[in-house]
Amino acid sequence: MAKKNKNQHKVQGEFLFGKKNYLIMIVGAAVILIGFALMIGGGSDDPNIFNEEIYNFRRIRLAPTIVLIGLAIEVYAIMANPGKEQ
After folding, report:
1. Dihedral sign, CA of 26, 29, 30, 31?
2. ∠ CA 69-43-29 to the nearest 5 degrees?
3. Which of 25, 38, 40, 62 can bridge 77 by disulfide, Cβ–Cβ 3.0-4.6 Å?
4. DSSP character at residue 62
């Protein structure tokens, strides 16, 4: 039989990240959702008619940039140290 070490115990009730990390993650997810919402639309009701609106600045440049910013916020939220005092 293997002996159990006295220092081995399960810690229950602790979250992996701190409250600050989870708040930053929520903000990052909201920014990503805003970016995807900006990509919506621009289609044509008639499939035989092409709508140039799909290639406007908002859908081609702004929305993907906002999604990337949201992903960067998520990476920061994961890497941020919750125990570090400011």
Report:
1. positive
2. 25
3. 25
4. I
- Predicted TM-score (pTM) of the model is 0.75
d(CA 50, CA 75): 38
Residue located via tokens 């440049």 = 61
Cα–Cα distance for residue pair 37/19, rounded to 1 Å: 27
If you ran DSSP here, which 8-state letter would residue 80 be given?
A: S
Q: What is the pLDDT of residue 38?
A: 94
Angle between the N-to-C axes of helices 19-39 and 63-79, in degrees from 0 to 180, rounded to the nearest 10: 170
The ranges of the chain with pLDDT < 50 are none
